[in-house]
Amino acid sequence: MTVDLLLGLQWGDEGKGKIVDVLTSKYDIIARFQGGPNAGHTLEFDGIKHVLRTIPSGIFHSNNINIIGNGVVIDPVVFKSEIDGLAKFNLDLKSKLIISRKAHLILPTHRLLDAASEASKGKAKIGSTLKGIGPTYMDKTGRNGIRVGDIELADFKERYRALADKHEAMISFYNVDIQYNLAELEKEFFEAIEDLKKLDFIDSEEYLAQAQKAGKSILCEGAQGSLLDVDFGTYPFVTSSNTTAAGACTGLGIAPNKIKEVYGIFKAYTTRVGSGPFPTEDFGEAGDLMASVGNEFGSVTGRKRRCGWLDLVALKYAIQINGVTQLMMMKGDVLSGFETLKVATGYNYKGETINHLPYNIEEENVTPIYTEFKGWKQDLTGLTTFESLPKELKEYIEFIEREVNVPIKIVSVGPDRKQTITHK
Question: Is 416 an active-site residue?
Fold first, then answer.
């Protein structure tokens, strides 16, 4: 019996979907533990690019079960489109994909509330993806939410109506110009609910407990990144769930002492989507080059990602709060061609040198202290062994390992599942 955990260590978009796909053959169950459909996990193989929003990234493998856990929020309309997009691959979703009854549903009015709230903030907006995720988690913690298990109840539509009516009253409170046709949105929503009912709903905490007793191996899959955690991220520019290791316990009902390996995924540089502080952001040619070569656009939203140098202060923080045991470095190939690479190894914080992430990392308080490295020109995308990597990249990797005191076990040199180098 093994329970391992995989999560992102930066501001999301680290490449978790690819690594879950690469690791899936070792596990019987892949279980998504938090987040909503703003998280696009991109997988690429056999010349085809796949973007999954809610469905766990193990779905393309034939011999495992994929679970959407209680910590996830599900938009039935988005979920239906995701299922429809998978139809051409002849996957047996009925037997491979199951959903926790305790997962919360995103209603059409949650999306409208999201838009109204963000519009009301003006320049102070947090950069929401407007998928209704924040308002859904607010209803969850406010004990007003509707869960997947409620679909099975006789009064489901009455429960829906009561909450939707409450949301409409809240939307009018914001006093912003939001145009919508709720009847049309609701028609689409209830059609999608009928599709959702074709899948099996489970008490996932019991299912996973029995799976552990039976000796099954489980990989818990997170969404977004540690620096977007609602408690430990760059609040308020964060998501609405716990993206850190603790979220796997609350989002699946797995006890902390059952988790063995914690796989932490990070890019060889840093990116961020939306608003919020970003100490190592590069506003010049280097940042533009990372964005263009790395194709740094959101897989769901299409938004351009802000780019900058690797921040070891933030990375060490994420490793610490998650208890990371193994690292995977993504997109090393994007840095090919840079004459010089920079890595932030400390901060100048209000005139003092520090090596930890402080409460406030806004640019008026924090200036990164960089260590520079010689770059490499070699194209990495066709390489298959660690020994074949350029000397400068190996030195870059070894420096990171020494600084964070955790081994880098995988180096990704391209988006395809085959472009993955294992480092013993």
Answer: no
Q: Which parts of 249-407 are beta strand (E)?
A: 259-267, 270-272, 306-308, 310-311, 326-330, 340-349, 352-354, 366-374
172, 107, 95, 154: which is closest to 135 by C-alpha? 107
Task: Please tell me which residue in 4, 13, 229, 333 is annotated as part of the active site.
Answer: 13
Q: Quick check: helix, strand or coil at residue 104?
A: strand
Nearest in space to 5 (alpha carbons), one of 184, 252, 233: 252
* SS3 call for 161: helix
Cα separation values, 4 from 136, 148, 207, Å: 28, 26, 17
Strands 340-349 and 352-354, bridge-based pairing? antiparallel
| Angle made by CA atoms 44, 222, 98, in degrees to the nearest 5 | 85
Helix (H, G, I), strand (E, B) or coil at 124: helix
Nearest C-alpha neighbor of 245 from the set 272, 211, 220: 220
Alpha-carbon distances, residue 325 vs 182, 249, 250 (angstroms)? 48, 17, 20
Contact 51, 41 (CB under 8 A): yes
Residue 271 and residue 11 in contact, taking contact as beta carbons nearer than 8 Å: yes
Mind listing the pLDDT tens digit for each residue in 178-209? Answer: 888 999 999 999 999 999 999 999 999 999 99
* φ, ψ (nearest 5 deg) of residue 361: -115, 25
Average pLDDT value for residue range 66-91 = 91
pTM of full prediction above 0.85: yes
What gap in Å lies between CA 334 and CA 305, rounded to an integer?
A: 14
Cβ burial, residue 387 (10 Å; 0-12/13-18/19+): exposed
Q: What average pLDDT does the segment 9-35 reach?
A: 90
423 counts as catalytic = no
Structure token pair of residue 144: 């007003």
- C-alpha distances (whole Å) from 39 to each of 17, 53, 57, 301, 363 are 10, 6, 12, 9, 27
Give the type of residue at 280.
Answer: T
Q: Assess whether the previous peptide bond of 358 is cis (omega < 30° from 0).
A: no
Whether the CB-CB separation of 335 and 341 falls below 8 Å is answered with yes
Catalytic residue among 41, 50, 104, 110: 41
Q: What is the pLDDT of residue 124?
A: 61
CA 33 to chain centre: 10
